[in-house]
Task: structure prediction
Amino acid sequence: AQTVTQSQPEMSVQEAETVTLSCTYDTSENNYYLFWYKQPPSRQMILVIRQEAYKQQNATENRFSVNFQKAAKSFSLKISDSQLGDTAMYFCAFSVPDKLIFGTGTRLQVFP
Amino acid sequence: DGGITQSPKYLFRKEGQNVTLSCEQNLNHDAMYWYRQDPGQGLRLIYYSQIVNDFQKGDIAEGYSVSREKKESFPLTVTSAQKNPTAFYLCASTWTNAEETQYFGPGTRLLVL
Result:
């Protein structure tokens, strides 16, 4: 079965600090894409970062970066210099032919 | 402005009633998707369509139906056969397939009276 596991249902971090959200997945595919999506209280899903599995270099997007370990099937998200606006649900997902498989999410609270 | 719109924002369904959720996009995307989100769970795929007049069942298609008569539109009907329809429904689109970034609409909250 193709699954995504986010083992941290809730996390908190103080403003300006760094936090890492974990994600592991299971697939027999060799070529796929990995995503982190953010869902703030407005419930609008927003792409945070995307990683191609065939690329060894970790993707970065401003304060957001990933640690992609293909052999371990791990895809963690690091948020640096956390801001109050980062408070949201974060979903990890990977693509299989024709669809995305989502994890259950991590609720991140950023405190002032 | 380019984007995805969903309507209505809130929808109430009575027992035995079919209701239709609207999803429209002006991004010229070929592929469109419907997801269901329940508390404490991730998004689960209901139906998807990669081309006009064609669509496929996702993981939880029972009790739902869709149509794709126009590239821009992908309405979802929640039928009376769906016994637990209360959820948040999200529509998404992408250029061709799931390897690409999916762009999401603002969602529709469906409640049962």
In short: The mean pLDDT of chain A is 94.
